[in-house]
Amino acid sequence: MKNVWIAWAVVAVLAGGPLALPVMVGAQQSVAGTWTGAARGVAGRQPFQEDFTMVLVQHGQKVTGTFSRKFETGAKAKTGRERTGMRVRGTFTGDKLSLTIAKVQTLEATVDGDAMVGSLMRENGKPHHVSATRVK
């Protein structure tokens, strides 16, 4: 009799019946690809804008890649100053991206498909608003 109940339980699970195991809906989205965006805020007393490009690679929840930026305006920045190829490492869980950039900056963002919004924080600075779009 025990074998009959086991057989019915297996049939119910396979058929999606009341004894079926819950199924995860949808796969985890990915942040892999090339992203372009801007960080905006105030540096000192002046408005600040930094355009950036990130190339991200994702393996499970682990994210690595590079970050390149170009200052457009800012208190101490010379217009057009660039820094390229800074290493990025972090995690992506659910829709939350958390990155460390060149060991001195952090980026925390919420990702929705090909768009993200969040904040960029420097070691001794104020957070800057970040928005970015995946271009490929």
Q: How would you portray this structure in words?
A:
The chain has 136 residues and is mostly beta strands. Helix content is 10%, strand content 57%. An eight-stranded antiparallel beta barrel has the order 1-2-3-4-5-6-7-8. It starts with a helix and ends with a strand. It is globular and about 40 Å long.
Question: Which helices and strands, and how do they pair?
Answer:
Elements: H1 2-15, E1 33-43, E2 46-59, E3 62-73, E4 82-93, E5 96-101, E6 105-112, E7 115-122, E8 128-134
Antiparallel strand pairs: 1-2, 1-8, 2-3, 3-4, 4-5, 5-6, 6-7, 7-8
Using brief descriptors, characterize the structure shown.
136 residues; mainly beta; Lipocalin; eight-stranded antiparallel beta barrel; 10% helix; 57% strand; globular
CATH superfamily: Quinohemoprotein amine dehydrogenase alpha subunit, domain 2
Largest sheet: 8 strands, antiparallel, barrel
N-to-C span = 58 Å
User: CATH class, anyone?
Assistant: Mainly Beta
| CATH-assigned fold name | Lipocalin
Instruction: Kindly give the count of domains.
Output: 1
**Number of DSSP E strands:** 8
Low-confidence segments, ≥5 residues, pLDDT <50?
17-26
Strand order of the largest sheet: 1-2-3-4-5-6-7-8
Beta-strand content estimate: over 45%
Judging from the principal axes of the Cα atoms, what is the shape? globular
- Rg (CA only): 22 Å
